[in-house]
Amino acid sequence: MPPAEEPVRAIGRLTPDGTWVGIEPAFDGYRLVFGHADGPALRDPTTDPFERRAGLVAAAISFFLASLADPPADLEATQADLAQLVGSLSGDTREALDAIDDGLSGEAVAIRLQRLLPTGADATRILRDRYARVGPR
Prior knowledge:
By secondary structure, this protein is α+β, with helices and mostly antiparallel strands. It has helices at about 50-65, 80-90, 95-100, 105-115, 125-135; strands at about 10-15, 20-25, 30-35, 40-45.
């Protein structure tokens, strides 16, 4: 479980206007968060553990594939942040953690993380769909 005093860490930007997605420590692991430069972060209210995990796995995959635009520099997540996130997830994350620890390529880590999602799931689509549910109306 992450220490409660850890700050929000951004994974990347979802939209051209600068909406970013990130992770934030919570009492029971991590939560997805979405933000803009000009406002507070929006926390993903998902309570279903499988759906919540899918969003966090999608964020980790997006980080390791560098599939999103660069996050705000002052909030940018590190590989160590993502290793801690992956270690906190339920399920068989050993292969992904070993790949991170062994310094394998981001693609190799992402392949191992993809196994934690349903077949055919797209990490970027999961994040965009989640933002559509919690983002500004």
